[in-house]
């Protein structure tokens, strides 16, 4: 567990060094309770309003049953910003995903993680980087052989409205292919490719935001007065009250 957390933290630092603060990184280890908890913690840290792109790493994710919850977070778009007279702007909704998403996949991404990859790709919500996924989505039975080898075989399969039987025994293909070289590399070539793609998308998002800001010509809210002096209305009210008292006094006499 400690080694995994250190590995994920090292990946986050590598992305920060390559892309700066505009790109965040979060790893989704599995589609179970602990994996989703870690994902939510990382998402809250690396999906802030100053992020224009986010890398979601699902390499080695063997699946589970929380794809609906993951997709709800990743598909919640930003609607705008709350701009107070004082302080920093806050994005709305507060925990919305960055505009650009990059999903990092490999041949060990399987089951429920493939559902996330397919949905984000088919809906145009994310750019997939890495290698084609395993191709085993639903209800896999496991048979153990005499020598300890485990054979996985599907007991049912998923039919897609758009693509039919496109994932089972096929997998989800990336938009940007980045396989591991046969000789091996000291650095993570797939993460580097994902960071390069995310940085390019972040620049596009930043340029679009700058263009929208110029066209909208929004002016900042006027600053509120910090110290209040005697208001003319208050003085007028006091004068009117004194006049009424004088008239009442004369009437009594």
TrEMBL record:
Family per record: Belongs to the peptidase S41B family.
Keyword annotations from UniProtKB, A to Z: Cytoplasm, Hydrolase, Protease, Serine protease
Top-rank lineage group of the source organism: Eukaryota
Pfam families assigned to the protein according to its UniProt record, in alphabetical order: Peptidase_S41 (PF03572)
Alphabetized CDD domains for the sequence: Peptidase_S41_TRI
Keyword hit for Glycoprotein: no
GO molecular function, one term: serine-type peptidase activity
Domain Tail specific protease residues, every copy: 1-179
Official protein name in the record: Tail specific protease domain-containing protein
Record GO cellular component, one term: cytoplasm
GO BP of this protein: proteolysis
Spans annotated as Disordered: 211-253
Segments forming a coiled coil: none
Localization terms from the record: Cytoplasm
Biased composition (Basic and acidic residues): 244-253
Main localization, broad class: cytoplasm
Species: Calcidiscus leptoporus
Keyword Protease (UniProt): yes
